[in-house]
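Write out the bound-state structure for FE2/S2 (inorganic) cluster.
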Amino acid sequence: MANNGGRRSTEWFGATGRAGMAYRSWMRSQGFTTEVFDGRPVIGIATTWSELAPCNVHLHRVAESVKRGVWQAGGFPLEFPAMALGETLLRPTAMLYRNLLAMEAEELIRANPLDGVVLLSGCDKTTPGLLMAAASTDLPAIMVTGGPKLNGKYQGTDVGSGTAVWRWEEDLVAGRMTQEECFFAEGCMSRSDGHCMTMGTASTMASMAEALGMQLPYSATWPAPDSRRYETAQRAGQVIVDLVNSDLTPSKIMTRQAFENAIRVNAAIGGSTNAVIHLLAIAGRLGVPLSLDDFDALAADVPTLVNLQPSGKYLMEDFCYAGGLPAVMRELGGLLHGDAITVTGKTVYENVSYAPCWNRDVIHPLDKPFQPVGTGTAVLRGNLAPDGAVIKQSAASPHLLKHRGRALVFDSPEAYHAVVADPELDADENTVLVVRYCGPKGYPGMPEVSNVPLPKKLLQRGVRDMVRICDGRMSGTAYGTVVLHVTPEAAAGGPLALVRTGDWITLDVPSRALTLEVPDDELARRRAAWTAPPPAAARGWTRLYTDHVLQADTGADLDFLVGGSGHEVPRDSH
Ligand code: FES
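---
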């Protein structure tokens, strides 16, 4: 078989002699006709399908649609599994494994005879994990996210994944709902395939993939069961062959301009704070300079246009019918780099210039936004967070954005949960709840625990929000005045580790300040008495992770995974 395509895959399937026979013969056990080895583009379909990742459980069927498109365009599709990360089941947190997925997918893409790859994701960590892998290998790639669930329906009202859970828990604690009602309601919330249908992290990252130019227009918003999701997947199968033929690789698409577009889109959609960490990690793989402060600066003049839970009223299905992400990007107009190239081979401007909006209550116009400029993710600094912390202003209570209160400190969320129902808990609505040792090294894996529920006695008194400060993350479906990603984390010796119950803390979001009102000499004394906690594990992945994970302000990637190795395979044993 001649090496007639000059493609990467022909180094395998076009090889002569014993090696070529081995490459082809074992593949022929699947019944492929010999034309598949004629030098056509070999397209990997990385699927994060798993019954343990319920948001991704339909990706097997999505892959079939992708394959149709690849065959149509003259490619040879081969589906392969990549680590499926289900947000709800994995302990201690799916985030502990995002970098493992990224590493696994990167190695699989590089080690196999692939010319391009289609990335099938859905649940929160699967989208960034696969994008990080694609960035580090820099083979032509296109993403197809699995789409959001249909709107949840309970007692005649729409209910959103995650967001409803937080409210129902509060209602349960406050006696407004029974356990039986909750049990019934939880079934009403998840009534179709798909990922969370609020503007949580999955919807946010799907939107980020589209805003970065890495998935086809409208991909982020078609509901998972919608036939157009499958049509788009088939189209993606065609497009990846074009991408291989034109050598349009992720590094040519995910440029600094693309990241700036994504950050602005994230502000406009009221996206999850998790996008901050994931975009920083993806940029780190590409060598694109991006900093925590870019998220504040670039979003500063972008209002929130999309009225979706948890910050607003609607859900992803409504967003889809209102025009989806292209309608938002069209509305942003000159705020975006319209000439950024995308997987369509066209620019952002060309992709969205005719995208209509069908519902102005869901997607507001730029001159009449849902929330004004200055309500996006703010980056805070101060002696409590020298390397930064973030707060999602749109999910916070306006009256708490400037607040001074005494700290009530817990060294784990479990320690807090153990006393949350204590009627004697020394807390009132002005208390600042500090929950620490929840960062990348600390928990480990930086779980979404920062929005701890309010003390039961205060919920029963009608208090609905308090300032909370944590070095962990918050679910994109959650809300509240919660300062997140405090960096350096407590387990790395950050000042958060030095806070004591009773200390005064000042939060001043308009001034971007987070201040621990303790004199430097006292902090120095406390630091001298502080000892670092032991590693969370003695061996295995968790040990590797805690030894090498970077802090949140650079994306919490592993230090040795930053950057890329390309797709060349240095040696071949065959
Ligand atoms: Fe999978 Fe929310 S749990 S997207």
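---
The first helix runs from residue 10 to 13.
Residues 55, 87-88, 123-124, 161, 195-196, 200, 202 surround FE2/S2 (inorganic) cluster (CB under 6 Å).
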